[in-house]
Design goal:
- The chain is an alpha/beta fold.
- The protein is 22% helix and 27% strand.
- The chain contains eight helices and 15 strands.
- Strands 3, 4, 5, 6, 7, 14 and 15 form a seven-stranded mixed beta sheet that branches.
- The protein is globular and about 65 Å long.
- The chain starts with a strand and ends in an 8-residue tail after the last strand.
Length: 337
């Protein structure tokens, strides 16, 4: 039996991707076979097409760090044929073949069983972006800085997947003083409708003169950009405030001092969703079943594309401005078992 897959090969030091028909392998012990209904596009997925990105080290590889679908065969007693499941991160699409294929095999320990209200489409909409946003939020939700629903909170990179989910989650939880940062000023009406109170350009946050401490403006900063923007935001965090960092689209270098952290007691939280423990993942999924699931008007923006449209969209992802999530729809109907 064959399946269609987006396969990335390394040719003359350049990643080359194309949709191919490949044979289904034998299912390994403790692994599960899933008919893919949805995948999605994340920044890391797009980097698999860039030379020397370091995301993929062994070729050929099928990328796609997220997927959701139906179990069609299982060598793991926790999963039965017909179960609806989702796989996110955990080296899917990086060290093992991922979700950009019609049928995917993964270790059972990499899967979450969807046995509540969340659909396969919901799970793909959450994906790595939603999981990252939720993990970051749980790091600070019970702190004194977040106790006041009118606390000054800033989200950078709000038009991306993680930032969009952060806005959705915070608005859903009732926070009313949310500043969001984007260069796409034409999206201001949509961002305000989704719960932002202020929309500003990155340039508005740059300090006239670089200095370790500036006027205290934000009690919590969710940064998805890094680089110079984060360098300028750190001095503006209030005493005993928090920084939640989860992205480096603006660069991974940081020019700062220790002074904001020792003179204002600021806490820096890094977010890693790839190797987030399975037990804690289950708690995050439970939150998406309850308090974390936004109302329709607050859901992050998304578009659906077909598998045939995946490659051009993936190639353009890091080159063009976009808003929200891109879901890849493989199959809409439950297969017959």
């Amino acid at each position: 039996m064959q399946k269609k897959a987006l396969v990335v090969n390394l040719i003359d030091e350049q990643p080359q991707a194309q949709i191919e028909k490949i044979e289904l392998p034998s299912l390994k012990p403790d692994w599960v076979r899933v008919q893919v209904a949805y995948s999605d596009i994340n920044y890391k997925d797009a980097l698999t097409l860039k030379a020397h990105s370091g995301v993929i080290r062994d070729y050929p590889r099928v990328p796609g760090i997220d997927f959701a679908g139906w179990v069609t065969a299982s060598h793991d007693s926790d999963f039965q044929i017909g179960d609806q499941v989702v796989g996110i991160g955990q080296q899917i699409g990086i060290q093992i073949d991922g979700g950009y294929q019609e049928i995917v095999d993964v270790p059972g320990e990499f899967l979450h069983l969807l046995n509540g209200q969340r659909t396969l489409q919901d799970a793909a909409l959450i994906g790595t972006a939603g999981l990252t946003a939720a993990i970051g939020l749980t790091k600070v939700l019970d702190t004194e800085s977040m106790a006041d629903k009118n606390a000054a909170i800033l989200i950078s990179g709000v038009t991306g997947g993680v930032g969009g989910w952060q806005l959705a989650l915070l608005a859903q939880l009732g926070y009313t003083n949310l500043t969001v940062v984007t260069r796409q000023t034409d999206l201001k009406p949509q961002l305000l409708q989704r719960g932002a109170q202020r929309v500003c350009l990155p340039t508005e946050l740059l300090l006239p003169t670089p200095k370790p401490l500036a006027k205290q403006a934000y009690q919590v900063v969710f940064d998805n950009v890094g680089g110079d923007l984060l360098t300028n935001l750190i001095p503006q965090v209030s005493a005993n405030g928090h920084l939640v960092v989860s992205g480096n689209a603006g660069g991974f270098k940081l020019n700062t001092t220790i002074l904001p952290f020792i003179l204002r007691g600021i806490t820096l939280h890094g977010v890693d969703s790839v190797d987030y423990p399975q037990r804690d993942r289950e708690e995050i999924w439970q939150l998406f079943e309850t308090a974390f699931w936004p109302t329709v008007e607050r859901l992050p923006s998304y578009q659906e594309i077909t598998f045939a449209e995946l490659l051009p969209n993936l190639a353009a992802f890091t080159k063009e401005a976009h808003f929200g999530r891109t879901l890849v729809k493989f199959r809409s109907r439950r297969p017959r078992f």
